[in-house]
Write a structure and sequence with these properties.
By secondary structure, this protein is of the alpha/beta class. It has two domains: about 120 residues, NAD(P)-binding Rossmann-like Domain (Rossmann fold), CATH 3.40.50.720; about 180 residues, NAD(P)-binding Rossmann-like Domain (Rossmann fold), CATH 3.40.50.720. It is about 30% helix and about 15% strand. Helix 8 links the parallel strand 12 and strand 13. The radius of gyration is 22 Å and the shape is elongated. About 35% of the residues are buried.
Amino acid sequence: MPSLSDPIRRVLYLQKPEVITQQKALVIRTLQSALPKVEFLFADSVEAVPRNTKVDVIITPTLPWLPAALARLDQYRWIHFLSAGVEKIWDMDFDKTSILMTKSSGVHGAPMSEYAMGTMLYFDKQFGRFHDLAKQALWQRSWLDELTDKQLTVLGLGHIGQSLARRAKAFDMQVVGTQRTPRSISSVDRVVALEDIGPELARTDFLVCCLPLTEATRGLVNDKLLSQLKPGAVLIDISRGGVVKGDAVLKALDSGILKGAALDVFEQQPLPSESPLWKREDVLITPHVSGTTPHYLKRALNVFLDNYAAFSKGQRMVTLVDQAAGY
């Protein structure tokens, strides 16, 4: 693996043309105090990347033109991705073994856990129904449910899952979650391995999926998994498109296993207009927005600085991409 023992002298920031101009000032302002002698380069296309240049660090989203941009450089030691999910890079043609790669884990904790809490309230408080009634000027009262003592089961207790657990505890929910190696986690009542989740599914009121997309998780939430849920549960998918099988969700809704679903990601995006999911009154569809926030870039850059601080002290970087695990 490369070393950063030599000082960082040049950082290349890659971004889409429509946003790079508005981000330049924030990037420099956020990073300059920690890297006062660094030259910052910005490129919004392959052609804008200076040929035969040596840089120390590249900060970038998982842009489709990233491999071509890297090919123009003579040297780079470290890529920091502005996204927490990096599943797209494995199909990209560039050397991933001789460089350091970090990701922006943690930036989604607040917005995505707020999204999940909001969708749970959406179903228990019947906001969708009342919204439709209001458009017709209809006054139809009904008894509402509450989240107190409901079981929230979280598939994936990473940054997002743990952030969600803390918020759910403020609503006096029971929280269960999965980890590859189960350990005690604050605000989580029980932590189990994914393969042992069956008994917990039978007690689940809300199932939230926030797993990364890997070969191990692709299609994981399928007919078999959903069939183990307590009838009348609600599925909330804030993972990556492909973890949850859309046809399995439809079957579970039709059978009554699910009383509703909030879906933010899909196997095919945008969700095709002919998808039957659009026509379901028991499905809340959002266009992959659960992780959006005005604080995103600032948080992602701070994750980069956390990694830089750790490595400069000879410590392990805090959000290294795990090449074996695929995320």
